[in-house]
Design a protein that fits this description.
Blueprint: H1 14-20, H2 27-36, E1 44-47, H3 55-60, E2 65-69, H4 72-81, E3 88-92, E4 104-109, H5 120-133, E5 134-145, H6 149-152, E6 159-167, E7 170-181, E8 186-197, E9 200-212, H7 216-225, E10 228-234, E11 248-255
Parallel strand pairs: 1-2, 1-4, 2-3, 4-5
Antiparallel strand pairs: 5-11, 6-7, 7-8, 8-9, 10-11
Length: 256
């Protein structure tokens, strides 16, 4: 799959992306694994790194980081946020075709990036590619939204999601329309962003994104089939147990 075949419209405004995606709930678990593996001097691999939301704090904590993403604009934003002397490299590559110069003992993917790989074939290509980028017994962590009924059975109508404060008297009201295909296990989202100054609508943007939902036992079998041993399957980055109301699943697996 080449770059031109991916729908990246949701990520065309990296500055807005940063406003919409703040905080680092993943960081404590990532730092704990980096410490456990004693990886000082060896790179941590941030897959689908975006604008560096988690890669930059890891590098600032003293780790060497390689951030990989397909989107040139997101990587440019990450470059702009990088302080001089930070041990971090930004690389533009397709995650299903990784060609990195060195292997990493620890790789991770946050932001539910796993869901962008919509078919079994793409999931296999992704995991096989990551496996080649890891050292023997290397660790991979990633999250994916939990396929709860209330998550998938949303009515296909426009619904208010949230408001992003952009500046004084400027905000962005975000709405979504979701349609689930149970055969493909793919949720089709249309996101509508309405930019307002005071109460006056200044601009409206629509983007689309498709997300694959994978069930827990299906995920375990997929990992095993692609050369990974599933060590833990948590109900979020806090390390809580997985249960029916978990918002996401966090897989911790070892290259077998």
């Amino acid at each position: 799959m080449t770059m031109m075949e991916w729908d990246l419209s949701e990520y065309e405004d990296p500055t807005l992306y940063d406003l919409e995606n703040q905080g680092n709930p993943e960081l404590p678990m990532l730092l704990a694994w980096a410490k456990k593996l004693e990886i000082e001097g060896r790179p941590v691999l941030d897959l689908a790194c975006g604008t560096g939301r988690t890669a930059l704090p890891l590098a600032e904590a003293g780790y060497s980081v390689i951030g990989v993403d397909l989107h040139a604009g997101m990587l440019e934003q990450a470059h702009c946020k990088t302080s001089a002397g930070t041990d971090i490299r930004w690389v533009q590559q397709d995650l299903t075709q990784l060609q990195l110069e060195e292997r990493s003992p620890l790789a991770y993917m946050t932001g539910n990036g796993f869901q962008h790989f919509l078919t079994n074939e793409l999931q296999n290509l992704l995991l096989q590619s990551i496996r080649t980028a890891l050292t023997p017994d290397g660790i991979l962590l990633f999250d994916t939204r939990f396929p709860a009924a209330e998550e998938l059975l949303q009515p296909p109508v426009e619904e208010y999601w949230r408001t992003i404060e952009i500046g004084p008297e400027h905000r962005c009201d975000v709405y979504t329309i979701a349609t689930y295909d149970p055969v493909a296990q793919v949720q089709h989202y249309t996101t509508i962003r309405r930019f307002l100054e005071g109460e006056e609508l200044r601009e409206e943007r629509k983007t689309t994104i498709d997300l694959r939902y994978t069930y827990p036992q299906e995920l375990a079998r997929t990992l095993e089939a692609n050369g990974f041993e599933l060590l833990h399957l948590y109900g979020g980055w806090s390390g809580a147990s997985l249960h029916p109301s978990s918002p996401s699943m966090v897989a911790v697996c070892r290259r077998a």
